[in-house]
Design goal:
With about 70 residues, this protein is mostly helical. It has one domain. It contains three helices and no strands. It starts with 19 loop residues before the first helix and ends in a 5-residue tail after the last helix.
């Protein structure tokens, strides 16, 4: 299956350029467990599989949503 990438868009939100690991530690109670768990909001992939991958903006968007009340 081909990997689909998404263009990075900017909205002026400082979390767009913030260190993703710092954002993760701020919004997820158990970052290590969350990163290793398959997540249906990420197409059944683990969040860790997005780090350093062209799809990393998808993970960042999910973390930003969690920060603002979305349950992951």
């Amino acid at each position: 299956m081909a990997t689909q990438t998404y263009p990075i868009t900017t909205t002026g939100d400082p979390d767009e350029t913030r260190d993703i690991e710092a954002l993760l530690r701020e919004v997820v109670p158990d970052p290590d467990a969350w990163m290793a768990a398959v997540n249906p909001n990420l197409g059944g992939r683990t969040p860790a599989s997005f780090i350093g991958h062209p799809d990393e903006p998808i993970l960042r968007d999910l973390l930003r949503a969690v920060k603002h009340g979305f349950v992951s």
